[in-house]
Every structure is written in C-alpha cells, then in structure tokens.
Write a structure and sequence with these properties.
The complex is a heterodimer of chains A (321) and B (351). Chain A is 64% helix and 0% strand. Chain A is an all-alpha fold and 321 residues long. Chain A has two domains: 51 residues, no CATH class; 202 residues, Orthogonal Bundle (MetI-like fold), CATH 1.10.3720. Classes of the chains: A mainly alpha (321), B alpha+beta (351).
Chain lengths: 321, 351
C-alpha cells in the first residue's frame, strides 16, 4: 500500500460505496503527519545548529530567523581553527564585532585542545569499559561461582545512586590520588559510571547465547578465555558495539564530573569549554553553534560507522531451528 | 579411550540432590546408556563426567586417574548435544576443525582429519556451508564429526536424536551404532527414549530421582525389571500391572488366579504382564479370558485393550493370524514363567 495510492481520494458521491478507502486514507495521512512532526522534533534542533553555524551572527540572530543560510560562510569554523594563532593583548582583547561573526569569546583557543581531550577520554573509556565489562559479564553470566548474585546486585546497586550525589566524594578521592585536572581522573570516573551498566547489558546478552555452545566449547578444549573469545565475543558483536557506543557517548556528553574534576585546558573537555562560551559577557551564537557542530561530528561518525554491526540474528542456526 | 569410574558421585543444587552417591563403572569401549525421565539425574551425570559441573562429593576416575577436579578442556572427552551446539559463525569445516585447532594440530593434519570425518558422515559436500544452512540431520552429523575428528577418551551424548523427526532418528541411531563399532570407544549416551536405549546400549542404567534403579544389559532390564518403575518405564505399550495377593502358591485377585509357586503366601503384590507375553491357548499355558474393548492395529502387530477378569483392564498383543473385533470375547494363554511379581510396599521384584 503506497502513499500515492492513498492520496487518490474518491469522489464524494462514491465514498460510501468504497467504504474501506476513506479510513485507510485518513490513517495514512495521520501517520504521515505524525511522522513528519516526529522528524521535525528530533532533527529540527540539529538542522538549526548546522544552519546557524554557517551564518554570520547578524543573520543567525535576525527576526524572522533565516532557516537556511542566505550566504553560507565558513567564517565561524575558520575562527575556531585560527583561534590558537591569535595573540590576545590588552588592546586586542575586544577584537571583532559580535554582529559580523568575527567575534571570538575568551577561551576560544581552548576549543581544539578540549576536542582532543574529549576524544582521548572517550576512546580510553570506550576501550577500558569494554575490557572490564566483558570479563565481568562473562564471569557473572557463565561461571557459577559462590556470591555470583551478590556480585551482580552490588554492581547494579551502584547505579541507583544519582551521579550528583557522587560528585563530592569522587572529588575528594580524586584529589587524594593527586589526579585532579588530569584526563586519567575523567577516565576513571566515567568508567565507574559506564561499567556497571555495560555489565548489565552484556549479561543479558550472554544469557541469550545458548548454554550448549558454552558446553561444546569447553569440551572441545577451550578454557574460559577460549570460550569468551571463540564463542561469546563473535556472537555478541551487536551488544559489544552498543556498549562501545554507549560508553563513548556517555563520556563525550558528560558535564558535571568534568566541571568539578578539571580546571584548565590541560584536561577540560568539550562540553565544559563550549558552555564557557555562553557564559561570557558577550555570546556569539553562530560561533557557539559552529563549536556545537564540531562537537556532534565524532558521535555521528561513530553511529554511521557502526550502524551495520548493530544487527541481531547472528545466533541463527546455532541451535535447533 | 578410557574406563570411567564414578565413586559415590553426588551433586546437590542447594537443598536439591540431583545425583545421590552414584557408583558406576563404564568399561573401556562400552556403550552405556543412561535412561530415565527428565530430572532423573542422567544429564547431571554426563555433565559431571564432562567436567561441566563440579561434583559436590565423590570421585571420578578415567583409567584410574582422578579427574574429579580437572576442567573440561583437559579431560579429552567429546560431546554431542540435543541442540547440536554448532558454532553459528563458523563454517562446517571450521566447526569440525575447531577441537583440532585448539590442540595446535598441524594444518595438513587438520585438513586430512576433517575430510576423513566428513566422508565418513557423508557431509563432505557441506564443508563450506554454515550451520543455519543445514537441516537438523545434517547439523547433527556435523556435531558428530566434531566429536570423532579427535581421539577422545569418551564420547558423551546428551539426547542427540531428540530433535530429529522419527525417520531420521532411526537412520541416525544406526549411524551412531556403526560409529561405536568402528571407533571401539567408550560411549555414554543419555536418553529418555527406551527404544534408543534398547537398540544402542551394551548396558543400560535406568535412573530416577538421582539414583540408579537398575544397571543391566537391555535384555536383562527388559526380562527382569528390578522394580515397578523399571518395569513400567520400558516396554511399549507399557506392561500391565495388576494388584493382588499371594494365596496357596498363586496370585489372587477376586476370581483371577495365576500360578506363582515361589512367592511367599499372604504377601500384597503387583503382578506384571507384558502385552507381548500372551499366546494362543495351549495345554502348558494358563488361560486368560476377557472382552475386547478396543483394537489398535499397528501393521506389524495388533494390540487389543481387553477388560479382563476381576475388573482389570489389560493391553494384550493379539496372537499372529488372529482376527479380533471390538465387543467380542477373547481367550489367550499366559506362560507363568513370564509373569513378573513385585512387592506392593517396596515395589521391588520378588519373582
């Protein structure tokens, strides 16, 4: 049933004779309308982010707004990538005019280093999270050891506490370790957030893998490492990709911990630096949005890269079927 | 190849005892079938032998060597599962080669061994396929290939034919029997199917509630069931069981009277009569008469449900060449030597 067919509305007089058409048409239109609304709701802000980043400040703040850039310009992006070259003196500190888009907030030169920090932290978190969760989830899901349930519940209980309640204790611990204002502090903290949740995801996935495959692998000659590598890893690729993406995005978006645990460009991440632009005396919306566009590039790349792996049905044919 | 000895092997899950002090010696090259209903402890026994579960108590010996605490990958046993348990991400070739790769067998050796196993099981043309492209029977052949490709101490089979349809089950059954003859290896085979047990086994261990009820050859178990459970579990259609008591050297139940010279008088007993143990009446046989209620022709045999004397309902095999009709009377002869007597209280065999 295609949409084009639905739109051939019957003449009013014959509507009664072909009763099914009218409700079908109505349903199709309704579905289309809500789909459109949903797409606007989800994609609208992103579209505006991209559109305004290609406009000058005057164009971006005009009323009525320019939905599409009248004269697309890369000036905002140029400003971001040139920010490091600029020498700020007392005289040049107010250089640029917010209305033309050449305005640079203080701290603009921190944007690229913070992008690097965010990437480094995100990749470490994604990798270590997977390594830790994988082994823990295998142990809990597969090996029948004493205290297995207690372990699982303890792991899950840590996730019941809201992050904000952990900020001060974590700050004290990290300070005691002498890790304040380091990327390591962020990696460790984010792992504490992501690992329990990832363990939970992987356990439920592992438990869906037929137990007989584990038995077969062990009898065929695999130790626990072998069974994990030969059976559980290849069969849980979708879950692993999901875990990887989840950990990276959590780390990439995290704000509160990063705000408390880092102090300067050495360790600050993208959300901290970008939020700093808005709190400045003068805010350049087009510049902030250009920074925002840069901030969403890595997650989008990640999604595009991994989408084909997020397919289930890999276990088809393992057992009777 | 190995002799497997279980010594007081016990497995408990919390308060539940799945296996209760099992003593079992499986001889080198023997085909041992563990037979019983689900939950009887047969699969637990197999898992303990494979090392997939740890014994709560007792010892397990392979050729005199204590392997109770040896992890499964160092026990050198091969296993075949009801669910086939093929690795879905590997080709048939890689599935069969997998145990060899783990043992770092040289490449040429693997190639040769896999080809040989595949030829033997007639799956050589499927080596490049993946498990999901195969039928159930083909998958179970691949699983057998994965087991025979190395030289295991024992083959453990956990209801390998239960997922196959009836015709395939028959041909796979003879395939497994042939494999046992060719390999001369120790087989431990778990099933709840009495026909599989009878056809395959050198010896059968009938299990219930974590205990062995009887351990004997298929003939022994069929001819001399040790208790009521074993008598009822083997045989199709099942054995007729009639409650009564011993009086004057005979089994009595109301007007029904069957000779039982060796049983002690006054005992409350259950009499067992297999449907196939009746013949045409003859001088040396005890007559048994009744009315045919239902006739079930199976082609090779015809069974009749008969309402017998003393309010009994019996299933009997109609003697060859007879024509019986529902509602008509029937009289057959019973050989007293083929009757089974069990104590009603202990359920044990008495004659």
């Amino acid at each position: 049933m295609s949409g084009a067919e639905d739109r051939r509305a019957p003449p009013p007089g014959r509507a009664a004779a072909r009763r099914p058409v009218a409700p079908r048409l109505g349903r199709g239109l309704l579905l289309a309308a809500f789909s459109l609304l949903f797409v606007l709701y989800v994609a609208g802000p992103v579209a505006w982010l991209v559109s305004s980043s290609l406009q000058t400040e005057a164009q971006a703040t005009a009323v009525p707004p320019n939905w599409l850039p009248p004269e697309p310009t890369l000036a905002n992006f140029e400003a971001i990538f040139r920010a490091g070259e600029r020498v700020v003196t007392y005289e040049t500190r107010r250089q640029g005019d917010p209305a033309t888009g050449g305005f640079l907030p203080t701290g603009a030169q921190n944007l690229l280093p913070s992008l690097r920090n965010s990437l480094v932290v995100g990749l470490w978190v994604a990798a270590l999270n997977l390594l830790l969760s994988l082994t823990a989830a295998y142990a809990i899901a597969v090996i029948d050891f004493r205290g297995r349930r207690a372990t699982l519940y303890t792991v899950l209980a840590t996730r019941v506490i809201p992050d904000i309640a952990l900020v001060v204790p974590l700050f004290l611990v990290i300070r005691a370790l002498g890790l304040i204002n380091s990327l390591a502090a962020l990696v460790v903290t984010y792992l504490a957030v992501t690992v329990p949740f990832t363990i939970f995801i992987l356990i439920s996935y592992f438990e869906g893998i037929p137990r007989d495959l584990y038995r077969a692998a062990r009898v065929d000659g695999c130790g626990h490492w072998g069974a994990l590598r030969q059976v559980y890893l290849p069969l849980s690729l979708p879950a692993l990709v999901a875990a990887l993406t989840f950990a990276f995005l959590t780390s990439w978006n995290e704000f509160v911990f990063a705000l408390v645990l880092t102090q300067n460009v050495e360790a600050q991440t993208l959300p901290i630096v970008i939020s700093g632009f808005v709190m400045d005396f003068t805010t350049s919306f087009s510049f902030v949005n250009a920074a925002g566009v840069i901030a969403i590039v890595p997650p989008v790349l990640l999604a595009v890269l991994f989408q084909r792996y997020i397919v289930s049905g890999l276990t088809a044919g393992a057992v009777k079927g | 190849m190995a002799t497997i000895v279980c010594e007081a092997l016990t497995k408990r899950y919390g308060a539940v005892t799945a296996l209760d002090a099992l003593d079992l010696t499986i001889a080198h090259g023997e085909f041992m079938v563990l037979l019983g209903p689900s939950g009887c402890g047969k699969t637990t026994t197999l898992n303990l032998i494979a090392g997939l579960e740890e014994a709560s108590e007792g010892r397990l010996l392979f050729d005199g060597r204590d392997v109770t605490w040896l992890p499964p990958h160092r026990r050198e046993v091969a296993m075949v599962f009801q669910s086939y348990a093929l690795y879905p991400n590997k080709t048939v070739f890689e599935n069969i080669a997998f145990p060899l790769r783990l043992r770092r067998t040289p490449r040429a050796g693997i190639e040769r061994a896999v080809r040989a196993a595949a030829e033997q099981l007639e799956i050589a043309h499927l080596l490049d396929r993946r498990p999901h492209q195969l039928s159930g029977g083909q998958r179970q052949r691949v699983a057998l290939g994965r087991a025979i490709v190395r030289n295991p101490a024992a083959f453990l089979m956990d209801e390998p034919l239960s997922n196959l349809d009836a015709a395939l089950r028959l041909s796979m059954r003879s395939l497994i029997k042939r494999l046992h003859h060719q390999l001369r290896a120790t087989f431990v085979y778990v099933t709840h199917d009495q026909a599989e047990a009878m056809t395959l086994a050198d010896r059968i261990a009938v299990m219930r509630g974590g205990l062995i009820q009887q351990l004997d050859t298929p003939e022994g178990i069929y001819e001399r069931p040790a208790n009521l459970f074993v008598a009822g579990f083997l045989g199709s259609p099942p054995i007729n069981l009639i409650e009564g008591r011993i009086e004057d050297g005979a089994f009595r139940r109301a007007e029904l009277r069957l000779p039982a010279p060796r049983a002690e008088p006054g005992r409350e007993v259950v009499l067992g009569l297999r449907p196939e143990d009746v013949e045409a009446p003859a001088p040396h046989l005890v007559p048994l008469a009744g009315r045919v209620e239902l006739v079930s022709p199976l082609g090779s045999d015809t069974y009749a449900e008969v309402s017998g004397p003393a309010g009994t309902s019996l299933t009997l095999r109609v003697p060859k060449g007879w024509r019986v009709r529902e509602g008509e009377g029937i009289e057959v002869g019973v050989d007293p030597a083929r009757l089974h007597l069990f104590d009603r209280a202990t359920e044990r065999r008495i004659a």
